[in-house]
Design a protein that fits this description.
The protein is an alpha+beta fold. Helices cover 55% and strands 20% of the residues. It has a domain of 116 residues. The chain is built from 19 helices and 16 strands. Strands 1, 2, 4, 5, 6, 7 and 8 form a seven-stranded antiparallel sheet that branches. Strand 1 and strand 2 form a beta hairpin.
Length: 580
């Protein structure tokens, strides 16, 4: 809901602030240009086209700022958050289970005199197109020169479905679930059948590869184990010689008993220390460490002797290992860097081959599911079409009644529910609202069958009938009362008030019969300092409303009869609203 709009430096408006509340707000005033600038400012705030010529003479830029409250979980809040907007908590509305959390969003648009413009959403710079996206869920503008929201066929279909209520909503929910599954099944079938040759080639390659792996039968980690074994077999003589030489250095060589060795030298060192160890604890500790070294060297010498004795030259085993490694290497060149990766590929390939080999069964099962879903969708679509057709007739009758009350007694609408080819996400129907202004005329699309003034009243009638079923929280009407007066004007005001029970409504009007139904009355006032004429906006109290209605009725505020008529209009409107 729009809470506040501030306009600075736009056309004749120097600085104006509009405080907007729930219900029906009307804008009146002597200066037509000022009222136009109010709508121009709102249009800019909602992402409309910028015109540098609208910037007030003598200023370099125009600024329009707006503060709106939105549902915390709604699409507008989600889109604004995606764009990085900062959203502040606002006063929730409703009570108990119907309580709705609200957020406050700040919007602004700056237009330079040379025509450039900038937009800000939630305190952050944003493309102007984002304002237009958000406006689609915030405001519906109905004016002679505005793009009408309900002129789009998709909007007409959605609005009719909301008007139809559960009769469409329940089967449509089931339909949407089955439609999504049908799309998935058809995509899967297309993928299987259109790529049958590629899948057959893939299966043949998998069989060939899996056969190679199976014939070699590699074991986990076998490549690393064999690599180590080949290293030992290929260097057996060198390994044995190194072990024997090291053993002789540690424990001596029987062929040369007088040659020094490590164990002999350690024994001499211990013999030198042991007789004196009792005289000094520090020396005793060193003697113990020397004994540990002797034991360690002795163990290493024994292990070297054992290792040297166990190293055998086995050319046959070496050839066998090299052959096995060659077979494993052939696998790792194709299916993985290591044997473990080859085994992982084989496991995944086996599963994929089972899937590919089951294509025929899969195609048959998917085909049966598609037939079942198609039949179920056909039944649901027929139910939806029937409900839409019935709702369309009720809707057309209701709107025609409203048009009669709005001084269009011969006007009527026709809501066509036409079949289209194939299933769509919302069924098998296209919906179009057609209009005829008099008997005998062929119904035509809304934007072609109605004049500007008729279109505004037609949209009012449609919105009144749709009231409560349309998610847009704010409606703006300009020239909705064009070409009407007297009783018809009262009916326009009454219907605007009816619509305001379900949404926020902003109306620019020149008729006192319409203005009398306002919950909030804003007046565009003109001032002239002898050099520059400017306009502002002020909120009228009860006395101010009587004065303004008097001016609108008689052209002057001091007329006693005009004031009496104004008070009567206000009283009649209040009584009408109390009795609705």
């Amino acid at each position: 809901m729009l809470e506040e709009i501030r306009i600075r430096g736009l056309g004749v408006i120097d600085d104006a602030q509009l405080e907007l509340g729930p219900g029906l707000t009307v804008v009146t005033g002597e200066t037509g240009a000022g009222k136009t600038m109010v709508l121009t400012g709102l249009n800019l705030l909602m992402g409309g086209r910028a015109d540098g010529g609208a910037v007030r003479t003598g200023t370099s830029r125009a600024l329009v700022e707006g503060r709106v409250t939105i549902d915390a979980g709604g699409p507008v809040a989600e889109r604004a958050a995606e764009a990085g907007a900062e959203l502040e908590p606002a006063e929730p509305i409703g009570k108990g289970k119907s309580k709705r959390e609200r957020l406050e969003l700040l919007l602004s648009r700056t237009v330079m005199a040379e025509g450039r413009s900038r937009a800000h959403v939630g305190g952050h710079s944003a493309p102007v197109s984002l304002l237009g996206e958000l406006a689609d869920g915030l405001v519906a503008v109905h004016g002679q020169s505005d793009q009408q929201r309900l002129l789009r066929s998709s909007r007409q279909l959605a609005a009719l479905d909301r008007f139809a209520g559960a009769a469409v909503a329940e089967p449509l929910a089931d339909y949407a679930t089955r439609y999504a599954r049908l799309r998935s099944v058809e995509a899967e079938l297309d993928e299987v059948t259109s790529k049958a040759r590629e899948r057959a080639q893939e299966a043949d390659l998998l069989r060939l590869g899996l056969g190679e792996v199976e014939s070699v039968d590699p074991q986990p980690g076998e490549d690393e184990t064999l690599r180590a074994e080949e290293g030992r077999l290929a260097h057996a003589d060198a390994l044995r010689t190194a072990a024997v030489t090291a053993h002789q250095s540690l424990s001596g060589d029987e062929s040369f008993p007088d040659a020094p060795d490590v164990l002999g030298l350690l024994a001499q060192a211990r013999q030198a220390l042991d007789p004196e160890r009792d005289h000094d604890p520090e020396l005793a500790a060193l003697a113990d460490r020397l004994a540990e070294a002797t034991y360690l060297v002795g163990d290493v010498a024994a292990d070297l002797a054992s290792y040297g004795a166990g190293v055998d030259t086995d050319p046959e085993r070496l050839a066998e290992v090299q052959s096995r490694r060659a077979a494993l290497t052939a696998l790792t060149r194709k299916y993985g860097e290591t044997i473990d990766q080859v085994l992982t590929w084989a496991e995944q390939g086996s599963r994929r081959l089972l899937e590919l080999d089951g294509d025929d069964d899969r195609v048959a099962a998917l085909g049966q599911e598609r037939e079942r879903l198609t039949a179920e969708l056909g039944d649901l679509a027929a139910t939806i079409t029937k409900a839409r057709t019935e709702a369309a007739a009720r809707f057309a009758d209701d709107v025609s009644v409203e048009l009669t009350a709005l001084a269009m007694p011969h006007a009527r609408i026709v809501v066509e529910v036409r079949p289209r080819d194939g299933f769509g996400p919302t069924g098998v129907d296209d919906v179009e609202i057609l209009f005829t202004g008099h008997n005998g005329a062929q119904p035509r699309p809304l934007d072609k069958g109605a004049s500007g003034g008729e279109l505004s009243r037609l949209m009012l009638a449609i919105e009144v009938v749709f009231a409560g079923a349309d998610p847009v929280p704010t409606f703006v009407f300009d020239e909705v009362d064009a070409g009407v007066g007297g009783k018809a004007a009262v009916e326009v005001g009454r219907r605007l008030a009816m619509l305001a029970r379900h949404a926020q409504v902003l109306v620019v009007t020149h008729l006192p019969q319409v203005a009398a139904f306002a919950d909030h009355h804003l007046k565009v006032v003109k001032s002239d300092d002898g050099r520059v004429t400017s306009s502002g906006v002020e909120m009228l109290d009860d006395t101010g409303r009587v004065n303004e209605l008097s001016r609108m009725l008689a052209g002057l505020e001091g007329s006693a009869s005009a004031r009496a008529h104004a008070e009567e209009l206000l009283e009649t409107a209040a009584g009408s609203k109390r009795g609705r």
